[in-house]
């Protein structure tokens, strides 16, 4: 699991579709009060997985720790 590489959500792009929340089997995401996803367990993220970013329909996910932040 990753300590320095985890998803960061751009809430200006996020529509709250929960595709990332439903995709991730590692419990990285929880929910905010407004129903949008929230990274609650960043240490559970599998380094270089990138799955939630790939399935996000609005491109609202990037990763802390990417070389080209």
From TrEMBL:
PROSITE patterns: 4FE4S_FER_1 (PS00198), 4FE4S_FER_2 (PS51379). Coiled coil: none annotated. InterPro entries: 4Fe4S_Fe-S-bd, 4Fe4S_Fe_S_CS, Fe-S_Ferredoxin. GO terms for molecular function: 4 iron, 4 sulfur cluster binding; metal ion binding; oxidoreductase activity. It holds the Pfam family Fer4_10. Keywords: 4Fe-4S, Iron, Iron-sulfur, Metal-binding. Residues 5-34, 36-66 form the 4Fe-4S ferredoxin-type domain. This is 4Fe-4S ferredoxin iron-sulfur binding domain protein.
């Amino acid at each position: 699991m990753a300590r320095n590489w985890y998803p960061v959500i751009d809430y200006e792009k996020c529509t709250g579709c929960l595709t990332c929340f439903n995709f991730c089997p590692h419990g990285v995401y929880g929910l905010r009060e407004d129903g949008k996803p929230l990274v609650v367990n960043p240490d559970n993220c599998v380094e270089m997985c990138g799955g939630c970013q790939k399935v996000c329909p609005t491109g609202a996910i990037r990763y802390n720790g990417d070389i080209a932040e």
